[in-house]
Amino acid sequence: MRVLFVSSTRIGDAVLSTGLLDHLLRHHPEARFTVACGPVAEGVFARMPRRDETIVLRKRALSLHWLDLWRRVAPHRWDLVVDLRGSGLAWTLRARRRAVMRGGRRAGHRIGHIAETLGVTPPPAPVAWTAPADEARAEAILGAPRPFLALGPTANWSGKVWPADRFVALARRLTEGAGSLRGAPVVLLGGPGSSEREAAAPVAAALAATPGGLIDLVGQLSLPEAAAVLGRAALFVGNDSGLMHLSAATGAPTLGLFGPTPASEYAPVGRAARAVVAGDGSMAGLTVGEVIEAAQALLPQRVAA
Questions:
Q1: I need a surface site. Which of 48, 95, 236, 297 has the fewest CB within 10 A?
Q2: Pfam families, alphabetically (predicted)?
Q3: How do residues 122-156 score in pLDDT, each as one tens digit?
Q4: Which domains are seen in the chain, by residue range?
Q5: What angle do CA 259, 263, 269 make, to 5 degrees?
Q6: What span, in angstroms and rounded, lies between the C-alpha atoms of 261 and 265?
């Protein structure tokens, strides 16, 4: 069985689509997969089982990237084509079955929209695939197993970024004094690029002397390596971002911070994930106290460091 799976250009949406892929993997153990996605999302699928190929869709003028993709996949006969981009590609290919996600904004969480494409209920939860090399890298970075607080202070839009001083205050209240993660190190994560580094720099500088230590990994990890690190966290707190969704997919306790973006559509999905939403719709309106209260709901009363 050959499956073509057209996923997202963005990391967050790509992570949310892994639940549907995992469903197909479990229900069709004979299937082989070709995944098409945007460049930044490629790492989401790098360790996926039974993946023959990832086709990276690099945007071109006049939507010529779709023609590039068609040229790659048209020579083959597919048993199933799943298109989460809502394009017309599936209808131009030789396929036994086609499933195209309806476009446009609508009520409900994105994971439900994805699952509806194949009529799967309830929506399957996202997964995070890693390899032994990724786990080994995480172990080498983190050392002996111990609880730590992971922070994701960056995002792809400044309007989604919680102020740096509040991330600092949050970390200190959780890891110092009587905090639930007293004595735990803080691990800082973010993607590559100068904008991510600039957003994380004030947090890194302020927490450099934190009692449990700071491990600054911004821009230093592949997505599978980041998943391996996040899967070991006692708690992840971060802005609405692909990193937030990846953390939730690992099963780590994950708290997503939301202001102007809709948590009803993009809250993190995982066995220990929740969103905290600013009442006034702005990240500046989200207080440290509100985030601490939400974090405590995801943590035992005391986690020994």
A1: 297
A2: Glyco_transf_9 (PF01075)
A3: 999 999 999 999 999 999 999 999 999 999 999 99
A4: 2-116 (3.40.50.2000), 132-298 (3.40.50.2000)
A5: 130
A6: 9
> What average pLDDT does the structure give for the chain?
96
Instruction: Provide the pLDDT for residue 77.
Output: 98
Residue 103: predicted pLDDT: 83
SS3 of 288, please?
A: helix
The amino acid that residue 191 corresponds to is G
Rounded-to-integer distance, Cα 119 and Cα 240, Å: 27
For the sheet containing 235-239, what is the strand order? 214-216, 186-188, 149-152, 235-239, 254-258, 273-277
User: How confident is the model over 88-112, as pLDDT tens digits?
Assistant: 999 999 999 999 998 888 899 999 9
Q: What is the pTM of this model?
A: 0.96
Question: Is the Cα torsion angle 240, 243, 57, 20 positive or negative in sign?
Answer: negative
Alpha-helical segments (H) within the chain: 11-27, 64-73, 110-116, 132-142, 164-175, 194-206, 223-230, 242-250, 263-266, 288-298
For 164-192, how does the pLDDT look when each residue is reduced to its tens digit (9 = 90+)?
Answer: 999 999 999 999 999 999 999 999 999 99
**Are 286 and 261 spatial neighbours (Cβ–Cβ below 8 Å)?**
no
Residue matched to tokens 């991510």:
196
Three-state DSSP state, 37: strand
Tokens of 261: 């973006």
Measured in degrees and rounded to the nearest 5, phi and psi for residue 36 equal -115, 130
β-strand partners of 54 = 35
How far are the Cα atoms of 26, 27, 280 from residue 18, in angstroms, in the given order? 12, 14, 32
pLDDT at 305 over 70: no
